[in-house]
């Protein structure tokens, strides 16, 4: 089971360092598998012990005239080789189109990054039924090489992100089982994963890990969630 913490626009460089230290301390006696933390760009740093650091975002280029962005050169400075691409907040708030997302994917694929590729539907699509749901989800794979060896897909229904309402285990199974069948990739679930839901989610065969936002922000609580998810 893998655990991914997405800090979004939370934490500073200083608090991220303290977080990593505390998380490692809390998990030192646990066989805790793979743990990834995605801090904001200003807090990128080299990982330590059990924690791998990844980037929440990156432009498709090494460097250049792209105000406000960071690219390969900045990520390499911290030995970052894991990146989130296609998060719904990037798609919805920052207007990243499927074509744009696919360009990022292609670039970081050529650089051999571990790519956590996020997909997920809004509530109005979910309400239209299963056929519409899969049509929407499959459209988010346009231009994406699903055979890429370092690809992990994160299924994150938009209506479950940051709302406190996680998808049910039946909802998750429905989507994950079909995605596994079609693409045979590693699959994460994300969307209001919490200490009280992690056990049931971790038991689902087609869930290989979780991407966690709000419930990952405090190191001691994230450590508890990890331990519960591992049944430790
Ligand atoms: C996310 O945005 O990736 C996420 C899963 O957030 P939350 O856990 O807060 O729903």
Please state the overall shape, judged from the principal axes of the Cα atoms: globular
Number of domains: 1
Q: Which spans of ≥5 residues are poorly predicted at pLDDT below 50?
A: none
What is the first-to-last residue Cα distance? Answer: 12 Å
Reading side by side through the largest sheet, how are the strands ordered?
3-2-1-8-7-6-5-4
Name the CATH class: Alpha Beta
Please provide the ordered H/E string of secondary-structure elements.
Answer: EHEEHEHHEHHEHEHEH
Radius of gyration from the alpha-carbon trace, in angstroms: 17 Å
Q: How many β-strands, per DSSP?
A: 8
Strand content: 15-25%
* CATH-level-2 architecture: Alpha-Beta Barrel
Helix/sheet category: alpha/beta
Bin the helical content. 25-40%
Main sheet overview: 8 strands, parallel
User: Roughly what is the average pLDDT, rounded to an integer?
Assistant: 96
> For the record, what is the CATH homologous superfamily label?
Aldolase class I
Would you write up a description of this structure?
The chain is 37% helix and 16% strand. With 232 residues, the protein is of the alpha/beta class. It has an 8-stranded parallel beta sheet with strand order 3-2-1-8-7-6-5-4, with helices on one face. It is globular and about 45 Å long. The model has no long low-confidence stretch (mean pLDDT 96). The structure holds phosphoenolpyruvate (PEP). Residues 6, 156, 161-162, 190-193, 211-215 line the site of phosphoenolpyruvate (PEP).
SSE inventory with pairings:
Layout (H helix, E strand, L loop, with lengths): L1 E5 L6 H14 L7 E5 L12 E3 L18 H5 L5 E4 L2 H5 L5 H13 L3 E6 L3 H4 L3 H10 L11 E5 L13 H15 L2 E5 L4 H8 L6 E4 L6 H12 L2
Parallel strand pairs: 1-2, 1-8, 2-3, 4-5, 5-6, 6-7, 7-8
Helix pairs in contact: 1-9, 8-9
The site of phosphoenolpyruvate has 13 residues, from strand 8.
